[in-house]
Specification:
This protein is an alpha/beta fold. It is 40% helix and 13% strand. Strands 2-1-3-4 form a four-stranded parallel sheet. The longest helix is centred in the C-terminal third of the chain and has 24 residues.
């Protein structure tokens, strides 16, 4: 088996988008990636629709909880190979320093938990984010990461988002 990579998905609240990123990266990659999630101002709960999705793909629910990004800045925390911001507010914040040479990119999505026009609209919004993340992660899995340098990987991560954003 090839090297396993740690990938951290960041959002302000760590209740929806970043949780979906953690679940998808881990389940779609079959061990190639280990997904993590955190927030700059984590909420007190994981959104019920994110939990429902995780349960549906067989992700262990006991792994899901809201976390501050500070948890990944301490000694003994997993070393992140990739850091993906998913919301514009966290992308604009001054992120902490993570040891190592993490490659970062921004894959912006509207917050599905912020949809307030009914349950059906919120379910649709979650589905859109899930599909968008799934498409990006599948393209990431196709990259020959071992053959690319840090700058090439960063460029590829950004191009994945831009290519799919305007479809």
């Amino acid at each position: 088996m090839s090297k396993s990579y740690n990938i951290l998905f960041l959002c302000t609240g760590n209740s929806a988008r970043s949780i979906l990123g953690e679940v998808l990266a881990t389940t779609l990659s079959h061990g190639r990636f280990v997904g993590y999630s955190a927030g700059s101002q984590p909420k007190r709960f994981v959104h019920p629709l994110a939990l429902k999705f995780a349960r549906g793909v067989g992700y262990p629910l006991e792994k899901l909880r809201n976390k501050s990004w500070d948890e990944y800045c301490v000694e003994g925390a997993p070393r992140m190979d990739f850091i993906i911001t998913l919301c514009d507010s966290v992308a604009g914040e001054s992120c902490p320093y993570w040891p190592g040479h993490s490659t970062s990119a921004h894959w912006g999505f509207a917050d599905p938990a912020a949809v307030d026009s009914g349950d059906e609209a919120m379910i649709h919004a979650f589905g859109q984010v899930e599909m968008g993340l799934r498409n990006r992660i599948e393209l990431l899995l196709d990259l020959p990461i071992e053959k690319l340098d840090h700058f090439q990987i960063k460029e590829k991560l950004q191009s994945i988002h831009h290519r799919l954003k305007f479809r």
